[in-house]
Design goal:
It is built from 4 helices and 15 strands. The chain is an alpha+beta fold and 262 residues long. The protein has one domain: Creatine Amidinohydrolase, CATH 3.90.230.10. Strands 8-7-9-14-15 form a 5-stranded antiparallel β-sheet. Bound molecules: magnesium ion. The site of magnesium ion (MG) has 5 residues, from loops.
């Protein structure tokens, strides 16, 4: 069952999401060659708590840390460690926060120093795929219109989407119905209604779509070792169009959803 949220609930989710966005921006300033992924995790937890939230991932199904940090061929769910980031890496930062029992969830993939042109393009396309999906998140559309738009953007650029992991509804739980796949034909699934809140999260691989989970039972990597990029926003569907609750774009000079062309 899809749980519709009241305006009041969405305002609380907007607060949790604002904390997520602000924390991601803080982490972006700290991401550079030589920093360990554990140091970024510490900064994530400190920032979330300073802003009045609770880390959503720490302890979730026994995940040990605040931040999922996924480097290069790692797709999602990488565990912070003593690994030092290197010039040329691309790094996915995924985090959630809880405020008054409600969740916000977002991710971005960013370069460490200067990265290769193909890596840059992969990140741009994955981000644009997210925005294309968000653009379909409007009242009256069907859920798979989002999925289809994401897949189209990724595949038309020559990349592939991960099918083993998907986006999700979000609210009083981190993962609620419905699942939000990054693939599929348009025009299927439930109609989108005001009060639905979704975490849309394209995972785009430079090579094939196949992934596997490492022996740590969390880290998802591409089977062919190719690079992967991940972007995510928590959005609320409203009569006025999709509201991006986790938007960090408004807080920087970077482009906002809908204005960036891959
Ligand atoms: Mg998510």
């Amino acid at each position: 069952m899809i749980m519709l949220k009241s305006d009041k609930e969405i305002e609380v989710m907007a607060e949790a999401s604002r904390i997520v966005a602000q924390t991601l921006l803080e982490l972006r300033t700290l991401t550079r060659p030589g920093v360990t992924t554990l140091e970024l995790d510490d900064a994530a937890e400190t920032t979330i708590r300073q802003l009045g939230g609770t880390p959503a991932f720490k302890g979730y199904r026994n995940f040990p840390r605040t931040l999922c940090i996924s480097v290069n061929e790692e797709v999602v769910h990488g565990i912070p460690s003593k690994r030092r980031l290197q010039e040329g890496d691309i790094v996915g930062l995924d985090l959630g926060a809880i405020v008054e029992g409600y969740y916000g969830d977002a991710a971005m993939t960013i370069p460490v120093g200067a990265v290769s042109e193909p890596a840059q393009r992969l990140m741009q396309v994955a981000q644009q795929a997210l925005y294309d999906g968000i653009a379909q998140a409007k009242v009256g559309n069907r859920l798979s219109d989002i999925s289809h738009a994401v897949q189209q953007r990724a595949e038309s650029a020559g990349f592939s989407v991960v099918t083993d992991f998907v986006g999700h509804g979000i609210g009083r739980q981190l993962h609620e119905e419905p699942q939000v796949p990054n693939f599929g034909p348009p025009g299927q699934g439930p109609r989108l209604r005001p009060g639905m809140v979704l975490a849309i999260e394209p995972m785009v691989n430079m090579g094939g779509s196949a992934v596997k989970v490492l022996s740590d039972r969390w880290t998802v990597v591409t089977q062919d070792g190719s690079l992967s990029a991940h972007f995510e926003h928590t959005i609320a569907i409203s009569e006025g169009g999709p509201r991006v609750l986790t938007a960090w774009e408004r807080r920087t000079a970077a482009s906002s959803p809908g204005t960036m062309v891959g």
